[in-house]
Amino acid sequence: MGGFRILGRGTSGWWRGLGAHAPPKDSGYSTKSRNQLQPQGSSKRSGVPRDQPFPGMLQLKNLSREELVDVLREAVVNQKGPLVTLNKPQGLPVTGKSGELTLLSVLPELSQSLGLSEQELHIVQAPGKEASGLVLLSSCPQTASRLQKFFTHSRKAQRPTATYCAITNGIPATAEGKIQAALRLECFDGVNLVVPVKSPSRKDILEGVKRTLSHFRVMATGSGCALVQLQPLTVFPGQLQVHMMLQLCPLLGDHTYSARLGTVLGQRFLLSDQSTKPQSQVLDEALLRCLHLTPSQSSQLPLHLHLHRLLLPGPGPRDTPMELLAPLPPYFSRTLQYLGLCQQ
């Protein structure tokens, strides 16, 4: 297992960890984990078809509980004391309905598998189902509480603790900036979707509208796409997807909110939230060629949103924060190579 890293002054761990100046060689998992996700033998065991155009993408419906525990155990990137950090595969839900296969549902088995049978692991922080990346677990309630207080205090002080990397379909108009939007959840045909709210009133805020904020920075561009660093300062479902959609640059593989963008004579504009339903993201022919995908394959394109970096509190209140990094999934690394985003 890798240890924690001390984040020194001026450190740029996010960009270093991605391999900014050369095509990434690491697929994002340990050797054993890669074998779990990209088997040389039976594709049934890992849930990944051998002809899968997106290497490393987990097919959850083909996995048993025991096989999912194996995948998660091999995805552990750090285990130190009561803390366990793993690199969650894209498509794995964190929570769900009773009987569904989720990260939460297999925590008892994972705890035993990691030798923590006395105290079961609990989720401290995790990206959503469609995102990949760092999941922070703890078997100690006091440690979990301390971390939650650290994250809450950091958000109030507007100090980001989570750094995502994303690939956008389109290039933001500015190289970096802040995205602020009031958001709320609305139910459309039985599905909860995030909707922006213009000029929210006090009543709106009391009824569930939340003011949200994210920082973004464009790290590289190519083929009409961008590699973007995203740092949320608030917590809301689908926040980063909606924020980039509002920038007219939806995340690559966003099959939920990208339909809210229309195009006339090459110019993008926002459509009404009520008039658009989620649908597979439509990519132009030039981008499909760059990605070596057919139109039917592009409908299965995974969301390119990865929680790459987390800051944790140091041992003492005045100590420098510690840094955890999770490498990119294999399909994400390959997309960077196809788009020429890893060579700038």
UniProtKB/TrEMBL annotation:
Polar residues bias: start-end ranges: 28-45
CDD domains on file: PseudoU_synth_RluA_like
Family matches, as SUPFAM superfamilies: Pseudouridine synthase
InterPro entries according to UniProt: PsdUridine_synth_cat_dom_sf, PsdUridine_synth_RsuA/RluA, RluA_PseudoU_synthase
Residues covered by region (Disordered): 15-57
Pfam families xref list: PseudoU_synth_2
Single GO molecular function: RNA binding
GO process annotations (BP): pseudouridine synthesis
Residue stretches making up the Pseudouridine synthase RsuA/RluA-like domain: 83-244
Name the UniProt record assigns to this protein: RNA pseudouridine synthase D3
